[in-house]
Structure formats: structure tokens, C-alpha cells
Amino acid sequence: xxxxxxxxxxxxxxRARAATCTSRSRCSSARRDEExxxxxxxxxxxxxxxxxxxxxxxxPELWTLFNTRLQPGEHFRVFPISNWTELDVWQYIARENIAxxxxxxTHQREVVDRRGLLVPVTELTPPRDGETVQxxxxxxxxxxxxxxxxxxESLAATADDIVIETLAAEVSERGATRMDDxxxxxxxxxxxxxxxx
Length: 197
Known about the structure:
By secondary structure, this protein is of the alpha+beta class.
């Protein structure tokens, strides 16, 4: 648990980093704990003139000092909370009493069990032949493309409930919710090099 001084310093850093987002940089909430490929990201993640991420071109970030020089056509993607974990995020949400869309909290939804994931039944993700539609209490740990983002079974109705649930979680946020990451261990790495995020 962060001390009040450390939490205030972290909040100041987030505001300072968010203020650096300009037309030549893009901000994101990606975190290093979400997926192996993201662990290589920097807070200021350099992109070449084609918008691609090059692991060897990433700049060191020692002592929270950032080299933000850019050549024409290059840009940064800024990940101000990349050092936070899912637990850090939910503790911050609970402490600051931040309102979120209801999709992050428990609700009943039609789903099918597909390869260990609860796939939401929608027009874009209909059940396949032989799959049984069930109504389950679920919540989304992350929100993304409905064709590849799945909810998890949960009764967590408040941010404090989610903090407790997250403390007991054995599978990462992405590992529990993303169909597209199940295709290969390198799927996120490939998408990053293609400029996905």
C-alpha cells in the first residue's frame, strides 16, 4: 500500500505526464502487468515515422528522466500508469471514489463458454453451433473490442469488492479476458510492431 506522500507524488506524476500529451504523442492506459509484450514498453514509448514500435529504439528512463526529442514524422505513445498494476488502479478508483460505467461491475449477461473464456452473446459474437447460452453474473475487467474482449464471472458490485477480488486473482486481466491473445504467445508483440497500440 502506498503511503499518502507516495500516493500524492504518483498522482502528481500522472498529471504531469498527462500534460505532456500533445498532437505528436498519444496517451494510453496500458500497463506493464497486462501482457508480456507490454512489459518492454516505456512510459514514453517511441514510434518511428511509420507508427511502428521498435523494441531496440526504446530510450532508457533512468530516475524518471525522459528523452522526448523527436525527429520529423516520429511520435510518442505515453503510458502514464504503465508501472501500476490492476490492483493499484482499483485501489486508486476506490480511494478517489471515481465513477465508472456499470459494465465494470457485476451484471447479468448472456454468455457462452468458449475455450475457457465467457464470450458475450451479441450480434457480432453469436453462439456457435453446439454452444449453450447461459445467463451469468459477470463484469468486464477491461473494455475493448467486443469481438475479442470477454467478461469474467464476478459478484463484485463496488470498487472495494473489486479490490478484494483482484487480490485473489490468479490470472492477469488480459489472460482472463482476451480471445485474441489466445492465438499465440507473440500475438501482442506482433500487433505492437504493426502499430496497434
